[in-house]
Amino acid sequence: MNMNKNIISHLLLISFFLYTPLFSVNTIKVSGIVQNVDGKLLPDAFLILKNQKKSVMTNRFGEFDFNNVFPGDTVIVSLKSYQNKKILVSSDMKVTLYPRSDIQDQINSARNGATIIIPSGKHYIYPDFNIDSTVALSINYKTDITIQGDIDSEIILKWDKADILLIHESNNIILKNFKIGYYDSTKKIDNDIAVFDSAETFKSAFADARSQLGRDAIFKYKGKLFHTNNSNESTAKITPRNVFNIFKSYDIFIDSVNIYGGNNICVKTTESKNIFINNITARKGLYAFVFNKSFNTLVKKSLISDNSEINYNKASEIELKENIIKISGNYVPEFVNIKGGSIEMLDENIIPPPEPTYLSAKDFNISRTEVTFRQFDAFCNATNRDMPDDSEWGRGDRPVINIRYDDAIAYCSWLSNLLGKTVRLPTVDEWEYASRGGIKGGDNKLYSGSNRLQEVSWCKYNSKDQTHPVGLKLANELGLYDMSGNVYEFCEGVIDSMITLKGGSWANSGVGCRLSDQVVSKVNFWDDNIGFRCVQE
């Protein structure tokens, strides 16, 4: 009887093994495809299981099949020109590989003095996710490296959570002749920052922005940036990315580069010095420039276009010189920061000299040149006003003429709304303080920047009886042009229907162009030798 029971047990055990797959317990069937970020299937990709050491390759359709494997293992996928990828095994896998950057490979292998040429065409890049997903390209601890674009070369980052190029503790780096920026197929980055100036209070503006934009969005109110997460927090709580992020580096040269910020920061420098930016385009950034503890920085002859803010300066020494600035498609003046102070005014021609007087001003910003036809015409187009006559001398970069005091006030009001900052005419003291070069200049020059009239002005002796494009003569100590000659300039304030004009014009000799000279005029008077420049608070 016991023998029969044993026979039956053995038969049942044999039956179990015969009809049950030997390795089905704790295994799964693993197969799938390997593709690139555009969905193209990739043949010849090599896949290996980290623990089980089993390997396969994709066929010409990008397919692979491990058959049955134990779960919990990691598959490592590799293919030439692509980043390696590690991923947990599963059924029906879809593995996406990101391309490696040939540019980064060249940077890594570059020796001192090397020049890296970016070939013509568009180069789409991603961060190396195996190293640092927050940076696409990096120059680390390098000296004497040039990155130069061939004709129409362009670097486009297809990942919006990373800086494009980090320059870290490097020196004598030259970047020139290429385009660089962010990509977004939805084109959301091409949208302007939403403005809520119509709200009566910030509380209302915040509520409207939060309702319309949701969280993690940036909006503008009365010229300042805020975000929608918390009304008590600043925009610093949302960290934008940077096209160029220069950190603890020096002697950096950026020349003829077209930067597309995509509502990030075009150029950021931190604890760096000797940064020279020339002939670039910086557009569509949250900020065009952010300077933090950086010194001897110059931005020159560049187009700064449609950025929410032009620059943010924290404990830095910077100069913006001879740049073209556009806001919402409109050309606007470039402003120069004037440090306040007092100038001792002493007339030594009188013997004995009288007690000195002082010309004083607080900090302010004044336009580098007189307002031009190009800038004023943008205002006329935006407000449906008739354009002033140019006396058949030409428009463009010549100072606007044939306008009244009220026209200048209207322009300042329009520009205030456009910039989100208060823009007005300079007071007489501000105008003269700036024209004398502030505390850098003093009272020892007859004209703005020189004692030689024709060096710094278009006047009776060289103008050929007409205005000339701004910025062609020598600037004064603060980089301001044409404060002597070219056109008289309106100053703020009306007293008994009379206004003050400073600076002289193309029709004047030395008298009228001297810094101490001024004339008064009726408020509604206009002529072809009168224009203006602006102050931004």
The largest sheet, given as strand count, sense and whether it forms a barrel, is: 13 strands, mixed
User: Helix content range of the residues, please?
Assistant: 10-25%
Q: How many domain regions?
A: 4
Radius of gyration over all CA atoms, rounded: 33 Å
In oligomeric terms, what are we looking at? single chain
CATH superfamily of the largest domain: paralog of FGE (formylglycine-generating enzyme)
Tally of contiguous helical segments: 9
CATH topology of the largest domain: paralog of FGE (formylglycine-generating enzyme)
Please give the CATH architecture of the largest domain: Alpha-Beta Complex
| CATH C-level category of the largest domain | Alpha Beta
The structural class is: alpha/beta
* Overall geometry: elongated
C-alpha termini separation? 109 Å
Give the low-pLDDT segments.
Answer: 11-24
Q: On the 0-100 scale, what is the average pLDDT? A: 89
Number of strands: 39
Strand content: 35-45%
